[in-house]
UniProtKB/TrEMBL annotation:
The lineage of its organism: Eukaryota, Sar, Stramenopiles, Ochrophyta, Bolidophyceae. This is SET domain-containing protein. PANTHER family: GRIP DOMAIN-CONTAINING PROTEIN (PTHR13271:SF154), UNCHARACTERIZED PUTATIVE METHYLTRANSFERASE (PTHR13271). The keyword Zinc does not apply. GO terms for molecular function: protein-lysine N-methyltransferase activity. The keyword Transferase does not apply. It comes from the Eukaryota. Residues 1-19 form the signal peptide.
Amino acid sequence: MLRLPQFLALLLLIPSSSFFFPRSAFPHLPPILSSTSSPINEMEAWLASNDVATAAAKHTETATFRGLILLSTPTATQSPLITLPKKLALSTTSTQNWDVDLATQLLTEICLGSTSSLSGYVSLLSSGAYGSSSTPLSSTLDSFKIPESCNSEPLPNWTAPNSLRHWTPEERSYLVEACGSRGQRALDASVKQLRSWIELTGSPSSNISSTFDIKDNRVLWFVWAMEAVHSRAFMGIAGVENSGAVTAALVAQGLGLVSGCAGVGFDEFPLVVVGGVAFAVGLGFNVFKGLVNPKEVLMLPYIDSANHDESSQNAIEYNPLKQEFELVCKGDQTPDSELFISYGERSPVDLLINFGIVKGGKAGRETDRRIMVDMLQK
């Protein structure tokens, strides 16, 4: 039976700070694509073919970040910058295997390649590395197999390249040396998460500590998809004015995972107890205003290209009458600036594991990991 990955019950107290970093000099990081790269062009063409207006924001990838650049400001107060029909979103209900459902959907679309109804989106996420299979993936993972056309493809760039699961042994050692038990607990949580994903494929995981240890291309593809899901999936919360104001306790209650939420340290590292097992509800759930379905979790093409800034007032809202998602600009924005959204209140461990940034940082920016560690000590 599939189980939501079980995370260590831990607290990691890391002080907040806001800062920007130059691109890391570490050679193992994936290359940065230019703004004229084929995946971006395919994404823009796909959006246009589905009547999604792109006049307000465009995709860009430079030497310092990947995300959306604002081209124009709204003509009316709180009018949407971006609208996305619900039919273009990947979705599942927030059952215990919500992340596996979304990951297998994503991999299926990647394997379909140009014949996928989400071809532009999967091309952007997979750096253009997709197949041409008509065979859907197993949603149960009891006999999890990636079609050969997809399995033979080289692994795409990681969607969260600075998350702890990708740190080299030297970088991980530096984290522990510099931050002591706090750094060790973060690494332990990252390893437990990674191993739980690998075990879902039926592969052994006891000797796995990072993605560098994974030799099976099939497993790497699945981990790649789970990373994309955990850094991009959204769920709806009713009555929330700003997605950044959503608390971990509210997310837990919205998921319906517990009737009486037994929380521990919600301010720093949100935990709930389900069936006697403590796990982190904050990991993997970003939030938007309004409900599609009280337990529906979605991946939102175009909108989810906007990077995270917890202080951003911009919000994602769902319009049930039009059955579309809207990215609404609620703060001062200027053309040619980067467009941010808040993915909600995230714990320091969540940011390190799923985004590769520290509290107060902005997701999507390539960061020097040694500078990150130095900042964690302050």
